[in-house]
Design goal:
With about 475 residues, the chain is of the alpha/beta class. It contains 13 helices and 16 strands. It has an 8-stranded parallel β-barrel, surrounded by 5 helices. Helix 2 runs parallel beside helix 4 and helix 6 packs parallel to helix 7.
Length: about 475
Amino acid sequence: MSVFRDDFLWGGACAANQFEGAWDVDGKGASVPDMCTNGSHTVPKWVTTTIHPDRLYPSHEAIDFYHHYEEDIALFAEMGFKTFRTSINWTRIFPNGWETEPNEKGLEFYDRVFDCCKKHGIEPLVTISHYELPYALVEKYNGWASRELIGFYMNYCKTIFERYKDKVKYWLTFNEINAGMMAFGQVLSTGTVQGYEGPAMGAPDDPQTRLQALHHQFVASAQAIIYAHAHYPQFKMGCMLAYGQSYAMTCDPDDQLANQQSMNEHNWYCGDVHVRGEYPYFAKRLWKELGVEIRMEPEDAETLKKGVVDFYTFSYYMTSCVTTHKDVEGIGGNLLGGVKNPYLKASDWGWQIDPKGLRYALNEIYGRYQIPLMVVENGLGAYDEKGEDGVVHDSYRIDYLRSHIEQMAEAVKDGVDLMGYTPWGCIDLVSASTGEMAKRYGFIYVNKFDDGTGDLSREKKDSFYWYKKVIATNGEDLA
C-alpha cells in the first residue's frame, strides 16, 4: 500500500506568462512579463516601457501553449496526471485590468483548456495571479502599491469564478505572495519590485511601499476567498508561498536568532495572515525597525480573519544557511539567497539540492497550521542535451525528483496531511528568473531556444516515462 492517500493529486505545474505565448492574440493586453526582454545565466533580463523591435521578449511566443494546448494536455494525460496547475493570464480577460466587461475570446480560451483537462480526467488547479499583472495597472497605479487594485482584482475573480464554476474546483489566489518579504534592497530581474509588481527596473526599493502593497494583496486574497466560500461552496481556496527553508550556519546563538528571524520574515509573516487570518506576533517590531506603518481600513482585520485558506501550497527548490559571520560564500536561488551549505550539492544554476529539507519544511508548516498541504513547485533546472539517439536522458532530473518524493513519503509517515505534488515546468518553458529556454525543467522537451528559433515540436524525455510509472503506482515505484 502506498503511503500517499488514494486521491493524491499527482501532476505538474506551469504559468501562463511562461508557456502560453500568443501575447497579443484575440484581444489580450500586455502584462508585466510581456515587457521583459530575454536574459541568460549571467546576463539579467530587463523590463522596457515600450516594445523594442530589435529585442527578444520570450513571453511573446514562449512555447505557444495557446495553440498547442490539446497536444500538451494529451501528453500530461499520457503520464497519468491527476491535476494540472496552471494560471489564468489576467490580461486575456481584462486587457488593461480595469475594464468592467471581460474579453470574451480570452474567456473562451480557458473554457477550451479546462474542457480539454476534464476530457482527460485532469483536475485543473488554477493560480489567479501568477506574476501576470496587467502592465497598464503598473503604469497608472504603480501596481499593488495602490489600494484600487483590490477592486480590479475582485472584478477579475468574480468573472472567472462564475465562468469556470463547473470546471475548476481548486484555486490559488496569488503565486509566491511572500516574494514581497524577501531580500529587501533587491529588484527582481523582471524589473518587478518583489511582491507588488510596481515600478520598473532600477527603481528604489522602499519597505513602506513594499509591505503596504503586500497588505493590499492580503486583503484582495481574503476578499476573494470570502466571496468564493459564500457563492461557490464547492471551491477549495488555497494560498501559495515560496518556502524559504534555511538553517543556522553555526551553533552561535547569534546565527540561531538570525535564522529564526529569516524564517519568520520569509515564511510565517505571510503564512500566518493566510491561514490564521492575522499578522504574526513579531510583525509590529518588524514594521517599527523598518520604519513602516501599514495603512489599514477599519474592516481589514475582520476581512483577513474571515478570508482564510482551505489548504496551503508552496514551492520548494532548495535551502540555504544563515549566519552573522563575515567572509562566507553566498548563493542565489528561487527569490531567496543565503550562505552556501558545505553538506549539499548544487544544480547548474547554483541552487543547493536538499531533499531532506523538504521533509523538514513539510513538518514545520504542518506543525504550525494543521491544514492540508501541497507541494506545487519543485524541480531541477538543467542544461538538457540530446543523446546520439536524439533523446534527452535526464537521469539527473529523475534522481532529483525521486529523492524529494522519498522525503515527501517520510513526511506523510510523520503525520503530515499532504494532498498533492505538481513538479515545476512539467513541460519546458521560459525561465521566470532569467528569461531563457536553456534552463529546462520539463518531462517534455520543447524545441525552442534562447535566440527565439525552434519549431516548437515536443519530445518525451526519459523522465516522462519515469514519472508516468511513479503516478501509476501512487509513488510506490520510484526506481
